[in-house]
Amino acid sequence: MAEVKTFTLTNDETGQSIKLPIRESVQGPAAIDVSSLYKEAGVFTYDPGFMSTASCQSKITYIQGEEGLLEYRGYPIEQLAVNGDFLETAYLLLYGELPKKDELAEFDHDITHHTMLNETLKNFFNGFHYNAHPMAIMVGVVGSLSAFYHDSLDINDPQQREIAAHRLIAKMPSIAAASYRHNIGAPIVYPRHSLSYCANLLHMMYATPCEQYEPDPIAEKALNLLFILHADHEQNASTSTVRLAGSSLANPFACIAAGIASLWGPAHGGANEAVLDMLAEIGDVSQIDKYIAKAKDKDDSFRLMGFGHRVYKKYDPRANIIRDVCHQVLEKLADTNNPLFELAQRLEEIALSDEYFIERKLYPNVDFYSGIIYRALGIPNNMFTVMFAIARTVGWVAHWMEMMSDPRQKIGRPRQVYKGHARREYIPISQRD
Ligand code: SDX
Questions:
Q1: Does residue 231 line the site of ligand 1, with CB under 6 A?
Q2: For the chain, what is the mean pLDDT?
Q3: Is the CB–ligand 1 distance for residue 318 below 6 Å?
Q4: Is the pTM here over 0.90, yes or no?
């Protein structure tokens, strides 16, 4: 048996040393296994924001931040983006291998035939005010799915876990489209089995009962690529939320609803909508310097949305691809001098030549250009993070399935460093002066 490498920790005050095993990785940093630290040394590790903490072992996605690398099950994102189909990528993330033709056909058929929503679920949408943010609707409706699909709630049954995973992937576009239709006061449109995953989403968003609607192939192709790029990203905030929720053995619909809630934050998936709001606020190239100064000002809460990343300290490989696709989509839509795109490119140029951003290795991330494409496809700003959630549902369910199939999985329960009052006695109100 290979010798286990260890890391020795020494308490400089007491001289106590303990040896901790090292968990080797296939690629990327190894980890010191500190699970016995408290038992052996009576201390915790402290790592708010998890800057240096591996929360689990996973085989799904690998990110190398210094080089700007992203691989799904070992395949570089650039190759999947050029060759891929979103459901093929979904299969890869769920099952670990690229599907053969018949496997993809069966998976595609299964997902397609789960796209309908339970008819009574439609009443749920009417419970929201017309101007409810679609992400608020998504969180509520996805969380309610366990009330409708009782035959895929037994998390100990691998078959039921798989059905729940397929239902979630299949129904997210239907729920997203229904949220949008509720926002614009239009009737919910049923999916069509003859359409691809992305074309069906466009159909359910934009078809009208009054005339034949054919999804725009440019939009279908752009969505397919954007969904591949957004499908998974290792242990980001929303995926970690799904894993923590799942660790309590909560049902998969509740776990994905928790992931949607976490993704909505502007520091995470909500950034794509925040980028467009920021570009609208900047308004003009002449204002860029003012906003760069605000972003650098410690006393100003303003941050350059779509910039920076906890892991990437080079250009986010997805942002590279999206920027190029943005250009192509705008050209095809004859929108070549799109002021937003021009402003974004100029903002990027100025920021990347500024010492503050260079020193902190702040580059455009996946959210910087994606909103400009969504906007060019006619998708409203408040639907941008919904698009992100549709794609990331594949990553969320892949990580949930990986965790739930591990017999050693335990409930996630971090500890703390207590900084409150030491023990003190209760004082009756009559004695409180
Ligand atoms: C996503 O984790 C993932 O993988 C996420 C994601 C995925 O696919 O799941 O990639 C998707 O969420 C992308 C990120 C989208 N968010 C944004 O674009 C919001 C703007 N970005 C920042 O809020 C920030 O960069 C984060 C949240 C993305 C990362 O924050 P970190 O890693 O905690 O970094 P930090 O806040 O400690 O910043 C380090 C320094 C600080 O300055 P100093 O205190 O060292 O002087 O960089 C500064 C920050 O003030 N900084 C920024 C900045 N981002 C960091 N300054 C101005 N503008 C910014 N955007």
A1: no
A2: 95
A3: no
A4: yes
Residues 6 or more apart whose Cβ sits within 8 Å of residue 199: 215, 220
87: enclosing H helix or E strand = helix 86-95
Cβ–ligand 1 distance for 267 under 6 Å, the answer yes
- Going by pLDDT thresholds of 50, 70 and 90, the confidence category of residue 84 is confident
User: Which contiguous run of DSSP H or E holds residue 144?
Assistant: helix 134-144
Amino acid symbol at 187: P
Over its C-alpha atoms, the chain yields an Rg (Å, rounded) of: 24
Cβ pair 139, 261 in contact under 8 A: yes
Can you give the pLDDT at residue 370? Answer: 95
In this prediction, residues 402-428 reach a mean pLDDT of 97
Strands 17-23 and 6-10 turn out to be: antiparallel
* Residues with active-site annotation: 309, 367
Contact present, 319 and 364 (Cβ < 8 Å): yes
| Identity of the residue numbered 45 | T
H-run or E-run covering 71 = strand 69-72
pLDDT band at 333 (very low <50, low <70, confident <90, very high): confident
Q: How far is Cα 261 from Cα 275, in angstroms, rounded to an integer?
A: 19
- Pocket probe for ligand 1: among 77, 302, 359, 362, the residue whose CB has the most ligand atoms within 8 Å is 362
Q: Is the CB of 236 under 6 A from ligand 1?
A: yes
Mean pLDDT score, 180-185: 96
Laid out side by side, the sheet with 6-10 consists of 6-10, 17-23, 31-32
Query: Quick one: average pLDDT of 142-155?
Result: 93
Distance 389 CA to ligand 1 centre (A): 19
Residue 22: which H helix or E strand, with range? strand 17-23
| Ligand 1 center–CA 307 separation, angstroms | 7
Distance CA 253, CA 133 (A): 20
Residue 166, C-beta contacts closer than 8 angstroms, at least 6 positions apart: 110, 111, 114
